[in-house]
Specification:
Layout: H1 2-24, H2 33-42, H3 52-61, H4 70-87, H5 91-104, H6 109-128, H7 135-159, H8 164-175, H9 183-195, H10 201-211, H11 217-228, H12 236-248, H13 259-263, H14 266-276, H15 288-296
Helix pairs in contact: 1-4, 2-3, 3-5, 4-5, 5-6, 6-7, 6-8, 7-8, 8-9, 9-10, 10-11, 11-12, 14-15
Length: about 300
Amino acid sequence: MLRRRLIVTCFRYASGILLLALGGAGILHLLGEDVRRVEKEAGLYNGVTLTGSGRDALAEHLSFFMLGGLSSLAAEIMVLDATSAWIERDWTRVEQRWNAATTLNPRRPNYWINAARDMAVNASAHAANDSSLTERERTLRSRSFFHRGEKFLEDGALHHPTSALIRVSQGDMYADLNRFPNFGKAAEAYREAVRLGAAPLYRRQEFYNLCRIRGREQEAWELGRALYDSPSQRLPSLLCLLFVLQNQIDVPPRQRLSVEQLFGSPEKARRELSRFEHNSLRFPVYGIKDFLRKQQS
């Protein structure tokens, strides 16, 4: 409650600053009814979801904010109100405010990322657990919010074609097993993120997602084998997946990594693979059961 009051107070204070700035610029009359009219025309009023064309309309109607650096101030106020709306679980207003913020100041990558998170994660999760809806309604509403978050990141990537951070956020969104995963898109996003300068660890995330896609085992094996050459990438999960993949695609004996190369010893292999066999991450476990059975005999 204290946090909410603080946010509301800050919002009112920031709003007062904006009113003074707009008044000094001779545009105070645009607030009140005129602003509501602008929002309505732009698709931001009465719960209407803003589309791409709506964003263009908003940018046109609110172009006065671009004068004197007021666009950044206005965008920050929209972000502040988005936070207030998030606390109140008013997802329509959350989306409206992020639409406005990203239109007023599209140069901030974190706006696109935070907007996507609020819709694809927070709003989607809230809808998925809304007991007032039927199971079908929960799924449809949750998926709708997810796609709105997805759109924020797509638009953000268009505005920031060299942002590795946005690509990482896309990868994280598509790899989320609790929402609506798309492992192909996740792998592609992580690959692009690394190309744009993201840390090498995201190559491992690309590998993990490729492993989950039926028909792309060879591609996953080749990437995993390349990662294996870097000692810092040799995590137990990667080693277990290499063991599984080389059994899935029947890698020729001379190209295979032996149990000793992967795990150090048959005992360590048995321990790691026993843990991995019952993973809940949708990773394949082909060949593990046979290996463990042979070790016991």
